[in-house]
Amino acid sequence: LCNRLANPARPVFLLGDVPPGEGTPPGKCQLIADKFLHRSRVLASDGFIVYDIQDEPGRSDIERPFPFRRVMDSSTHAALLARSSGRECLVYKCVADPQFDEWLERARNEHGLSAINIVGRATSEGKYEGPTVAEAMEKVANTDGVKFGCVCIAERHTREAAEARGKPYPTEHLNMLRKSKAGADWFISQAVYDAEPTIRLLKDYAAICKQEGVTPRKVVLTFAPVSRAKTMNFIKWLGVRVPPEAEELILNAEKPVDKSVECLCDVLRKILNECVGVGVPLGISCE
């Protein structure tokens, strides 16, 4: 899977899953994994993403639409999916963990995982334990048999975001360049509902890579269809930029999930049409 993620000559297709709740009995964990794998059997994916779910209390002043519930360790669920399916998993890991080193050793040596996506803290405010993103990247880069990628967030790459941070121009492309120089072999986007910030980010990332003489890493674009207003609110709470007209179109449709898939396909087509030839290899992830 790491080779496919890093290979610029072909796209990669992934399906995302969330681990079961913390304390779920092993037998039920297997049933949950089997249900996910049954749904995914008809889809031509290269592997699976398993997310690391955090509380993120400082993310927003707005109340979280769904109450937070702890889930089992992402590497444990990824190992279960891999054993049950024969497909490799990419596992997300947030750096806000004082046992990060132990987690990394367990993920590699006990669970046999080789693809890790490093995730930073939701906000710089508050008190966190664990390594910084830079420290975590160095730890993973020095671990034999493991490759890593990072998250890229197009919502940070807008004029409004730059102005809010006192910057003359968005800087997410510079973050991507810095992380690729630190060893990141790929990037996975936050869920995409608005094409424009992603188009700007991909073009700016391509330009800075060309300027620096660096080969652009693959960017996996994430798409997350929704079926109801509460899920849409959660998507927005996570920081995803959803154009009001798209939200209205989806939630007023007879079958919102079908309409959201249709809208996201249009978003993807626009990104592909606008970014053809820029030189950034792409992949697709669906939640």
Rounded to an integer, what's the Rg over CA atoms?
Answer: 18 Å
Poorly predicted runs are none
Helix content percent band? 40-55%
How can the largest sheet be summarized?
8 strands, parallel, barrel
**Overall mean pLDDT score?**
93
Tertiary shape: globular
Strand content: 5-15%
Class by SSE composition: alpha/beta
Give the N-to-C terminal Cα separation: 18 Å
Would you count the extended β strands for me? 8
**What strand line-up does the widest sheet have?**
1-2-3-4-5-6-7-8
SSE arrangement, N to C: HEHEHEHEHEHHEHEHHHE
The number of helical elements comes to 11
Explain what you see.
The chain has 287 residues and is of the alpha/beta class. 43% of the residues lie in helices and 15% in strands. It has helices spanning 2-6, 26-40, 74-85, 100-110, 133-141, 159-164, 172-181, 195-212, 229-237, 244-251, 256-275; strands at 13-17, 47-50, 89-94, 115-119, 147-152, 186-191, 218-223, 282-286. It has an eight-stranded parallel beta barrel with strand order 1-2-3-4-5-6-7-8. Helix 2 (26-40) links the parallel strand 1 and strand 2 (47-50). Helix 8 packs parallel to helix 11. The mean pLDDT is 93.
Features:
alpha/beta
Task: Set out the fold topology.
Layout: H1 2-6, E1 13-17, H2 26-40, E2 47-50, H3 74-85, E3 89-94, H4 100-110, E4 115-119, H5 133-141, E5 147-152, H6 159-164, H7 172-181, E6 186-191, H8 195-212, E7 218-223, H9 229-237, H10 244-251, H11 256-275, E8 282-286
Parallel strand pairs: 1-2, 1-8, 2-3, 3-4, 4-5, 5-6, 6-7, 7-8
